[in-house]
Amino acid sequence: MDIILTGDRPTGKLHLGHYVGSLKQRVKLQNEGNFDKMYVMIADAQGLTDNFDNPKKIKDNIIEVALDYLSVGIDPSKVTIFIQSQISELTELTFYYMNLVTVSRLSRNPTVKNEIKQKEYEKSIPVGFFCYPISQAADITLFKANIVPVGDDQLPMIEQTNEIVNSFNRIYGDTLVNAKAILPNNEQAKRLPGLDGKAKMSKSLGNCIYLSDTSDEVYKKVMSMYTDPNHIKVEDKGSVKGNMVFTYLDVFSNDELIRKYSKYNSLEEMKKHYKKGGLGDVVIKKVLYNILEEILEPIREKRKYYEDNIDKVYDILKDGTRKAREEANKTIKEVRKALMIDYFS
Ligand code: ATP
Ligand code: MG
Fold first, then answer.
1. Which of 28, 164, 180, 213 is the most buried (most CB within 10 A)?
2. Do residues 23 and 122 share a domain?
3. Is the pTM of this model over 0.90?
4. Cβ-contact 13, 172 below 8 angstroms
5. Which residue owns the Cα nearest ligand 1 atom 18?
6. Ligand 1: which residues within 6 Å by Cβ?
7. Which ligand is closest in space to the CA of residue 69?
8. pLDDT tens digit string along 252-284?
9. pLDDT, tens digit, for every residue of 184-238?
10. HSE (CB half, 13 Å, CA atoms) of 53?
């Protein structure tokens, strides 16, 4: 039985990092069809852990994220799209899992460590935020998902999930299923850096190209991208490593697209010229812009359709959430039984 589950926090619109890190993989898995069930969750409750003072932001972005899903081709007839907070079994399961995790184990989680620093929570961490890896374990296991297509920042979460699964099964008997992360094949796509060259394109860092950006916005953002600070004049020798334009070309282009939008036969040839000197940043940026537009234009068009039919989107969310709740109910009954708290059944 293969059950796939992923999700995103509705803390903003989805961006190219999500696209290459996770969305593309999801659509591929969906279309290959080698699974029994596939879920995509909008993690609003998790979004609230570090945005508890701004519920409107989370609320407004639920529909944006849903629009992003549908516009990249996630198909609600194949995939159950649901809203996390509406499945109360998730909160219940999180509570039981808290007994199986220590504070020191949570503090060692490298992704959480990083985010605590980024959010300046060092002095005082909200308990809810600190525990979000536990709630993420509940998300995955409540649906008995064994396949989780994510970016590599999520690997520590999957590891933590499996530790919980193993403890639970050892203490209470075989109930839960182990999960495996699926990462993108492309090295850089596992964690797409930001336009500014920072380690990760992230909503919270504001260094993103959003899937819903207009053509003009994309152009401006590409033109502002971090390249090689020592490549000042066109004749100067340029560095390809750490140059975001080439990093993105590595992820988004292929030789066919390079031939279509430049005078070069391959990305390798273009890189050689840049390294030798004589190839300007504006030229390489225009190539990247055109290639990104090939990907983004069809996404934009689909988005427009769903924006014009927004009632359909709400129906999809409602229907998906209802289906997810049915599934959640089955597992929580097994969990309660294993924990011997099924007193009245
Ligand atoms: P936030 O800053 O609010 O945490 P985020 O941009 O990190 O937002 P998430 O909703 O936390 O986005 O992540 C959703 C999924 O997208 C995860 O599977 C994550 O691994 C993947 N992802 C996010 N950013 C990137 C990126 N830059 N490169 C590759 N994958 C990414
Ligand atoms: Mg994140």
1. 164
2. yes
3. yes
4. no
5. 150
6. 8-9, 11, 17-18, 21-22, 150-151, 153-154, 191-192, 200-204
7. 1
8. 999 999 999 999 999 999 999 999 999 999 999
9. 888 888 999 999 999 899 987 889 999 999 999 999 999 999 999 999 999 999 9
10. 1
